[in-house]
Write the structure tokens for this entry.
Amino acid sequence: MSMLKEKLASQIPNLQEKVRNLAKESGKKSVSQVTVEQVLGGMRGVKSLICDTSEVALDKGVIIRGIPILELTDKLPEEIFWLLLTGELPKNAELKDLQNEMKKRSEVPEYIWSILKSFPSDAHPMSMFDTAITALEHESKFRSEYDKGMKKSQYWEYTLEDSLDLIAKLPSVAAGVYRIRFGKGSIIKPDPKLDWGANFAFMLGVNNNTTDWYDLMRLYMTLHSDHESGNVSAFTSHVVGSALSDPYYAVAAGLNGLAGPLHGLANQECLKFVIELAEHFGGVPSDEEMKNFANERLNKGMVIPGYGHAVLRVTDPRFTAFCDFGKKYMADDKIFGIVVKLFDVVPKLLMDQGKAKDPWPNVDAASGALLYYYGLKEYVYYTVVFGVSRALGICSQLVMSHAMGEPITRPKSVTLDWLINAAKD
Ligand code: NMX
Ligand code: MLT
């Protein structure tokens, strides 16, 4: 048994007891009210989900198991995965054990490469990535055990098994998508000496494998890993997983949501916008030029990608972490310079426009410029990189949800007329 599974097996009975007691002692207590505005407005702020892996404070950003994200930027993504699941950072031996588990499970079956090679040459990389994850469902231990008659108390164990298998393979699959889709030559096999994040950077094959490129990928994987459970991708995965669809189905479903421009695809849209600015002005524009260019976009009814958030009301600390990295390694780069200048100009524009509740940058405003600097220029690929990282959080949430014995998700919908009448009352 892996050390991670042992650790969880020792913690989960306590968690289950807390859930049982809460339901028994306070099951009928009211903890929040729902306004008409919330029903009409994407359920914003409705407290109806449990997520212990992380929380997003509107004035602080994401806090993973009590630790603000800016205090975790020097951690490996594997350490974050352990933290998300157990609430503690791993000891050295635990980290080694987890890394060994991942290495053992990292081989990608040949049929995945055949499927990826059969895509149209202009397919979107997210469609390729999500299809590969759905196809990998063939490997699901959760489903095969369920078919044999798995007990409810074992759901979390096989969710963990599938999660480890899937997460171990994702860097290879994602790098394979990149190399196939953009004609970069043969697939690069993982280097057994490298950790999970650095291996992803290595297998993309875009840079001379410098330590700062590896560091950027580790940081990227850590920063995007989890953002509580109400965001589109995590929530979708939660709903799909609640039907006892196995983690492959659940993760693929969530990442299909990540592929939307208001969610993870904003990183692609943001870099596209930055490149447009660079090409239009032949470098970093002045404040006035940038303001006019951005206003034109707003006047067309388009959003400024990478700005605004459904929960946050401050600059996303993940943006801050990326900017700090950029200032250290590429302070004079033109593309990074535009990202910094956008930060000077856009919040005021959005405040003047008066619509966005949060005028500040989110994680997607800076991430692309850094990948671009290291040679990952094909920005339609960027959401795949986000997806590899987000699988850490989604899988952790699925394990915890099954550990708590959560039932199938099934809220009640009402008709518009019902709502109009209820509002009159
Ligand atoms: N540029 C222009 N208008 C905006 C922006 C923006 N960046 N952000 C919000 N608004 C508008 C929004 O479209 C809405 O307009 P309308 O009333 O005409 O429909 C109005 O402001 C109120 O929206 P909010 O309540 O502030 O935002 P909401 O919670 O509905 O949506 C986002 C949050 C993140 C979807 C929204 O801010 C947005 O579209 N941002 C740009 C896309 C983006 O960066 N998404 C990435 C989010 C992070 N991630 O990785 O997932
Ligand atoms: C995320 O990381 O999922 C985004 O910031 C979106 C969100 O939290 O709603």
About this structure: Residues 262-264, 266, 298, 303-310, 350, 355-358, 362-364 surround nitromethyldethia coenzyme A (ligand 1) (CB under 6 Å). The radius of gyration is 22 Å.
